[in-house]
Design a protein that fits this description.
The chain is mostly beta strands. The chain has two helices and 21 strands. The strands form six sheets. A five-stranded antiparallel sheet has the order 17-16-19-20-21, with no helix packed on it.
Length: about 290
């Protein structure tokens, strides 16, 4: 073998070795990073996109349009260091320690321990039964618009930027306070009327009261007796025959406030309804 042939063989062997080394080095670089564009603001990215920033490769977790200040190192919920691609499919852990920290007649305040996630928890949905009552980013929430003296059952679910949702927390049941804060009394009942009678009973009716929260019932006072009813009629029984009876009734709101007495009505011995001071013969003509 000539010297030239030996030199050529050595040159070829060295070039082949360099080529092998180059292939090995390239294999250490993620395939998806080859040709990866530099991250840019005001650019739409989709899950799985790969970019470079400050010499580092990042993979997009969540579709978004980039903004200045949202550089990949600053928003780990949107970008993962490395060029492996793929999307986040791991949900956060369930929130724990759910409890009520305060309540009123129409609201409940809840608190819980934070969930964890492989990328990052972005928020929580608070459920009232099966419906979402609030969405928050922290670990407290106040649910309003509730009814007084009513039981509600709440749970919490955590979520991440990829849309993964945790299992529900343990449930907590809270009963709102009675409507003790209501200071407005019902309106006075009107049109108190005797609609029937026997020798020992009288049937009364009247026009309903109104209230800012709700009328829960009526108290009918007659002589020294008292009768409580929910509707706008009442039958007073156990009366002595041929006896004049004065009656008044009061509307009662949820706060159990009572009105001043409405105008009295009496059933006299002839069975004619009249108010004190009115002429009985005139009422007879009206009836």
């Amino acid at each position: 073998m000539s010297f030239a042939q030996i030199a050529l063989r050595r040159t070829f062997g060295k070039a082949f070795s360099l080529a092998i080394i180059a292939v090995l080095l390239l294999s250490l670089i993620p395939a998806m990073a080859l040709g990866a564009a530099e991250w840019q603001p005001n650019t739409a990215y989709k899950a799985g996109d790969v970019v470079t920033y400050a010499g580092q490769t990042y993979t997009c977790w969540q579709p978004h349009t980039s903004l200045t200040g949202w550089e990949p190192p600053n928003v780990p919920a949107l970008w993962k260091a490395g060029g492996s691609g793929g999307t986040d499919t791991q949900p956060p852990t369930a929130a724990s320690g759910l409890k009520a920290t305060g309540k009123t007649s129409n609201s409940v305040t809840l608190a819980w321990n934070a969930s964890t996630d492989n990328v990052g928890v972005t928020g929580y949905d608070v459920y009232n039964g099966s419906a979402v009552a609030a969405s928050v980013t922290g670990t407290t929430a106040t649910i309003g618009g509730l009814s007084a003296n009513t039981a509600y059952t709440f749970t919490v679910k955590a979520k991440d930027a990829a849309g993964n949702v945790s299992a529900a927390s343990q449930a907590v049941t809270v009963t709102t306070d009675p409507a003790s804060g209501d200071t407005q009394p019902p309106t006075a009942p009107t049109n108190l009327t005797v609609t029937g009678k026997t020798s020992s009973s009288i049937l009364l009716s009247w026009t309903a009261s109104t209230d800012n929260v709700g009328v829960t019932g009526y108290t009918v006072d007659y002589g020294s007796g008292t009768l409580s009813v929910a509707g706008t009629t009442a039958t007073v029984t156990g009366l002595a025959a041929d006896t004049t009876l004065y009656v008044h009734r009061e509307g009662e709101g949820r706060s159990r406030q009572r009105l001043g007495r409405c105008q009295r009505t009496r059933e006299d011995r002839t069975g004619v309804v009249r108010r004190p001071g009115q002429d009985r013969r005139r009422l007879l003509a009206q009836l």
